[in-house]
Amino acid sequence: MDAGVIGTGSMGRNHVRVYSELKEVGTTYVYDLDTAAAEQVAATTGAEVCHSMGELLRKAEAVSVAVPTPYHFATARQVIDAGVNALIEKPICLTTEEGAHLIAAIPDGVTVGVGHIERFNPIVEEIRGLVTNPLYVQVSRHNPTSSRVTGSSVVEDLMIHDIDVVLHALFSGPHTLTSTGTQDIASALFSFGSTPVYLSASRKASKKVRKIYIEEEEATIEGDFMTQEVYVYRKPGTYGLEDGHYRQENIIEKVLVNKVEPLKTELQTFVRAARDGTPFPVTPEQGLANLKVCEEIKKGLLA
Fold first, then answer.
1. Radius of gyration in angstroms for the set of CA atoms belonging to the chain, rounded to a whole number
2. Which of 247 and 238 is assigned the larger pLDDT?
3. What is the DSSP pairing of strand 85-89 with strand 112-115?
4. Rounded to two decimals, what is the model's pTM?
5. H or E segment and range at residue 280
6. How many Cβ atoms are within 10 Å of 46's Cβ, its own excluded?
7. 174-190: string of b/e by CB count within 10 Å (b at 16+)?
8. Given pLDDT bands bounded at 50, 70 and 90, which one contains residue 150?
9. Distance CA 67, CA 56 (A)
10. 252 to each of 88, 136, 160, how far by Cα in Å?
11. What is the DSSP secondary structure assignment for residue 195, as one 8-state letter?
12. Is 90 exceeded by the pLDDT of residue 151?
């Protein structure tokens, strides 16, 4: 299939690069209001520049919408109205109202997905297979300040990745939720029955952190989204005081993870879903559910 990318920000450029590398993709087209930016991306990837949305939608069969969030609804609506398959970068829209209107407008036969990239991180599937009865879960996603993010809080920018993983990969069913923080540093505490799930996100950190920590009765599971490493710490067989010092022997297992670039898996999955007319794993309805939780969390933040 021929693929297209609308928007050449940092995420859009990566989409163009990956589409250009996929064997499932013929020609990659790119469009941006800033033609010079589109030409620059095309020069490094071999993509072809389109000079209007209409031109791109006539040529591409599967399109990534990678414009700033306030323009998601209008841009994605134009794509699906043209009958073209669309992958909308997260969040699905600026507001839940826009998201609901967009979902209602999706015609039959058009594949639409939402780009929650961490769902395609290989550690998510590994951890899902390891978890049996979580007693406590903590997910941390901290970033240094980035000039690329404008017009959104840390919740839609960073925390939404972990909201998606928690709601659609690790847990299901009803939950309660409380939140606190600011537009740049936020925390949310979910309760799934008796299991607390704590999410933290920051755009003020001096260290980039992408980690998940899960405690169970007999083991502790740690995963790093960046290094794609998973460790399991089994309960110590020997522990106690010895010569006045506390000593503990743990069994530590390093899980074998097939490391891949999540974006490549995501776009490959999207192209195949568009080609076969099958649903994308992250559905628009799930994207909307994630956005609803974001809006609920933001109610607890200081302006």
1. 21
2. 247
3. parallel
4. 0.93
5. none
6. 12
7. eeeeebebeebbbbbbb
8. low
9. 15
10. 40, 19, 30
11. E
12. no
